[in-house]
Amino acid sequence: MNWIAFSYSLPGAARSSPRVALWRRLGRLGAVSPTSGVYVLPAREECVEGFQWLAQEIRRSKGEALLLRVDQFEGLTDPQLIALFNQTRQADYKAIDDEAAELEKSLSARKKRADPPRARDTVSRLRRRYVEVSRVDYFDCAEGARLNARLERIETALIPPRPAAANVALTPIAEYRQRCWVTRPRPHVDRLACIWLIRRFVNPQARVRYALRPEPDEIAFDFSEGQFGHQLGLCTFEAMLAAFGLSEPALQAMAEIVHEIDLRDGRAARAETAGVDAVLHGWRRANLSDAELEAHGVALFEGLYAALAHGMTV
Predict the structure, then answer these.
(1) d(Cα 138, Cα 16) in Å, to the nearest integer?
(2) Where are the domains of the chain?
(3) 3-70 falls under which CATH superfamily?
(4) What is residue 312's predicted lDDT score, i.e. its pLDDT?
(5) Quick one: pLDDT at residue 249?
(6) 3-state DSSP call for residue 39?
(7) Which of 141, 156, 170, 198 has a CA 20 to 30 Å removed from the CA of 50?
(8) Alpha-helix runs per DSSP H in the chain
(9) Residue ranges of the chain with pLDDT lower than 70?
(10) What is the four-CA torsion angle of 284, 288, 292, 294, rounded to 10 degrees?
């Protein structure tokens, strides 16, 4: 296996605060130190870049930094080094899991939740910490999956009771593969997610037109009247998933994000929601064209789907 090793020194007169800041940066990168003065990461592009930025900062501070690509360490096997990474991540996850376990215990002990907003704030904070650790969990430590499952249980328990959902009839995808689709101009979260869904699961070359009124032969979505739209308790993206029988966990997680941004009813509290919402809001402020919004939105939801699908399988 390929590794990147990093070693550095700062001037003797350097204050302690830069040393502490550098140590914290190494921790946020997820680096481990198998021996004093040497830090190691897997030789992935983002890890190499992280060490390169640190080396640049150290040299600007009149220090010295050395980066080495290593195939094998003398006296230290790859499985031993991977175990060191996992031990470090295990400790990180445990610190979060201890708090999550206390929160879960307090919720299960209450017949009536005393302060759901405060509990939601707490689980959101724990979810953010989990995401920070999982980003540097290079070897998929088993404790990460267990912590994620606990956080999902808590998040589910805190979801407000949902209204009765509409009964959506199943629709064969094949009937829509050669159709033209139409939706309203200035697409936002629900419509962008639907466009991604159409291109991902129905027809990669599907034509989507933006208009205030659909033509008779077009498949209208997210109109007040159309083949696909909001139904009782569901946004259009959720209704389309139900109609096409698409139920994999990553898609359901995306549906929670889209639903909350679109309807804002507090039914879900996924950590990704705020970031996706901010990006979409920024695009609208930038006054992007419909075509630009569509291209950006398809790329955004494709990345989100890939990330969620990976998280569901580790």
Answers:
(1) 30
(2) 3-70, 78-157, 173-313
(3) EIF_2_alpha (3.30.70.1130)
(4) 56
(5) 87
(6) strand
(7) 141
(8) 16-29, 45-60, 78-109, 116-135, 142-157, 189-197, 236-244, 249-263, 272-285, 290-313
(9) 13-16, 110-115, 160-167, 269, 311-314
(10) 30
